[in-house]
Design brief:
By secondary structure, this protein is α+β, with helices and mostly antiparallel strands. 54% of the residues lie in helices and 17% in strands. It has 24 helices and 22 strands. Helix 4 packs across helix 9 and helix 13 crosses helix 14. The radius of gyration is 34 Å and the shape is elongated. The relative contact order is 0.11.
Length: 687
């Protein structure tokens, strides 16, 4: 029973593919039956192949004909196939029935590929909708009650507990917490939110409970706008697609009209007999069919897709392989794309009495009790620094290196007791640890009070901040880095009078690490002739410009919401036509959908970004963007060559047919030969 259900589900989801496979299988059996002389069996199998493989094309062609009064290639292919089969039966040249079935099989395969492309939009929307919970916890007469999101009204008060997703946009009435908004706004650090601040649906609440007032309908929330933007961008046909549709309809009209004229006029104009006239008209339909033109494109694109897959570049459809070669402008998201998306310790600076390792060790002792991303980064850096520099040194060597490194503001490679004999991180146990949201953390370690936090917070415990460290901190902050001050008080529980008796040990700068290959990738893209490269981010101006400067991007747009990114992509498209967008987050989904080519990071990317994008970099290697562009340009060149060859063959066959120099078998051989030739040409991209 379960197997039957799965089979039915697979058949529904892949109906076009199943039809193409059955058509090919029946075609093979019919050919085999003809080869053995079993005409009865062949005449059962081949019509079945025609019906199964050509049903969808016939339905679409007839629908277009009767409803839109237009002729398209679908109907032309059916007419050509039936014409070939009829001629084969009339002249008892049954191999022509096989030729007609091959034409239908090619179109059935094409229809299956188009079906998969259409299904992708629906998956994108479903993934977006999964970002928000189905219910919200509403306060009704002092009691909490869960109701569906759709029933929320403006003015309702909802409760969000630590670790839960925000169900809808709203204003905080009470509570304090940090929210991870990276999925919506792209900000690299959790954002602190308190009374009066706006929160967005789909963002993740941190450690604090929040009471939120709904200030807009749930369907107007930011995440719902993202969903609608993705739907809209995916349904807007690009100009190139519209051109292809017009060309297809025009081509079909010309061939059908020419075929009708060729089947009726020659007896009156040139005195041909009707058998010769019909024979040449059917030959015309076969040789004029666009199979060679189709083979000029799809095998090339499929070969390019296979080539890209071997190099970690996933093209979701062949059209995007063509478009990536036409890209004139590229927009990069910052967090998780140009950067790793992971906060890391960038540099440590200490005063003369302490080493940088002392500063890290002190900070890590209390931060090990924190769930904040800053604390995790400090603890990780403390452990990694010790592991890297665990070689034993003499006391004099340590002092010498320490003094030199302090002058340069670099981490000191000295041995520390952070490691236990087994080589694991062994932080000093801290007690009475107290975190002050948005400010810092305090605790007692080795009978000393350790203070870690921002400058304003630490100044409550020290008399003054060293001028040298203050200048260093200001310099780091101007570069967009987060600065953490570290101080200690020899008195573990100082009295209010002795509270400001602590002394500063040093400062720690943290930043989202820029990907190692980012700068080289930007340089390579400029050499390839990409005219405009920009950065789009929800982060602040200082951080954005710092990263842009590091990687070589001159044009930066910061503090953007998802719809802002989409509008910028639209403006770029007006100026540069073909624009690529590279991103990894949910907030990038509308821009990825709107861009001519959406490129997502495969490892760090969200499910929505991966579903929405046209190209996925499976190993998050930015340098593969340049490889994809080069592959796209090569595919364009081969496609153009193949189109010229295909059209040349068609013209020669048409002229030969009109002059009476070829018969139907030669026409079929020429038609199929040109198809094979351009197919083999397209396979060059497999190299």
């Amino acid at each position: 029973m379960l197997y039957s259900q799965r089979l039915n589900q697979f058949t529904r989801e892949h109906a076009d593919t199943v039809a193409a496979l059955l058509c090919g299988f029946l075609l093979f059996l019919g050919w085999f039956a003809l080869h053995l002389g079993w005409l009865g069996l062949a005449f059962l199998l081949l019509p079945a192949a025609y019906i199964i493989g050509g049903y969808e094309s016939a339905r679409e062609g007839l629908t277009t004909l009767f409803k839109e009064k237009e002729l398209d290639v679908d109907l032309l292919m059916i007419v050509a196939a039936i014409g070939a089969a009829s001629l084969g039966l009339w002249r008892r040249e049954y191999h022509l029935i096989i030729d007609g079935a091959i034409l239908i099989l090619i179109f059935a395969i094409s229809g299956a590929l188009e079906g998969y492309t259409m299904q992708r939009t629906e998956r994108s929307i479903r993934s977006l909708m999964s970002l928000t919970p189905d219910t919200a916890r509403v306060l009704l007469q002092g009691r909490e009650e869960e109701i569906p999101i759709g029933q929320l009204k403006v003015g309702d008060e909802i409760v969000v507990k630590p670790g839960e997703l925000i169900p809808t946009d709203g204003i905080i009435l009470s509570g304090y917490s940090t929210l991870n908004q990276a999925a919506i706004t792209g900000e690299s650090l959790p954002v602190e939110k308190t009374v009066g601040a706006e929160v967005f649906a789909g963002t993740l609440n941190g450690y604090g409970a929040l009471q939120i007032k709904v200030h807009k309908p749930a369907q107007s929330s930011l995440i719902q706008r993202v969903i609608r933007l993705v739907e809209q961008a995916k349904t807007e046909a690009p100009p190139s697609q519209e051109f292809i549709d017009r060309f297809e309809k025009g081509y079909a009209k010309v061939i059908v009209v020419a075929g009708i004229l060729l089947a009726t006029l020659p007896p009156f104009l040139w005195g041909w007999d009707w058998e010769t006239t019909i024979y040449r008209a059917l030959t015309f339909l076969v040789v004029a069919s666009p199979c060679a033109l189709m083979a000029a494109i799809m095998p090339t694109l499929l070969s390019g897709i296979a080539n890209g897959a071997r190099q970690g570049i996933l093209f979701k459809n062949g059209a995007q392989l063509e478009k990536i070669g036409q890209v004139r402008a590229i927009a990069f998201d910052k967090t998780g794309t140009l950067t790793t998306g992971q906060l890391q310790v960038f540099q440590v600076f200490s005063i003369s009495e302490y080493t940088q390792q002392d500063v890290l060790k002190a900070a890590a002792s209390v931060e090990s009790y924190s769930e904040h991303s800053i604390g995790k980064a400090i603890v990780q850096a403390a452990g990694e620094t010790v592991r890297v520099f665990s070689a034993r040194r003499s006391a004099n060597a340590e002092r010498s290196v320490g003094a030199a490194s302090r002058r340069e503001g670099k981490a000191v490679p000295v041995e520390s007791k952070l490691l236990n004999p087994k080589g694991d991180l062994n932080l000093v146990d801290a007690i009475q640890v107290q975190a002050i949201p948005g400010q810092g953390i305090v605790g007692i370690a080795q009978e000393q009070q350790i203070i870690v936090g921002n400058a304003v917070f630490v100044q409550q415990y020290v008399t003054n901040l060293p001028e040298e460290l203050r200048k260093m901190a200001q310099s780091w902050e101007q570069e967009g880095k987060t600065v953490v001050w570290v101080a200690k008080n020899p008195t573990p529980n100082p009295s209010p009078q002795a509270r400001r008796g602590a002394e500063v040990m040093g400062v720690i700068a943290l930043a989202d690490e820029v990907r190692a290959e980012a700068a080289a990738t930007i340089t390579r893209l400029k050499k390839l002739g990409v005219e405009q490269i920009v950065m789009l981010t929800g982060d602040n101006q200082e951080t954005a410009h710092s990263v842009a400067k590091a990687v070589g991007i001159d044009r930066v747009y910061a503090q953007l919401l998802p719809e802002d990114k989409l509008n910028i992509i639209r403006r770029l498209q007006q100026q540069y036509q073909t624009v690529a967008m590279v991103g990894d987050g949910i907030n990038d989904a509308p821009a990825l959908a709107q861009a001519s080519v959406g490129i997502a990071m495969g490892v760090s990317g969200s499910d929505v970004a991966l579903e929405t994008a046209d190209i996925v970099l499976m190993a998050d290697r930015l340098e593969k963007i340049a490889v994809a562009i080069d592959l796209g340009r090569r595919s364009q060149a081969i496609v153009k060559q193949n189109i010229v060859v295909a059209l040349s063959f068609i013209m020669l066959l048409l002229v030969g047919n009109f002059l009476g120099n070829i018969n139907l078998p030669i026409g079929v051989i020429g038609h199929e030969g040109s198809t094979v030739l351009v197919t083999l040409s397209g396979l060059r991209l497999l190299k």
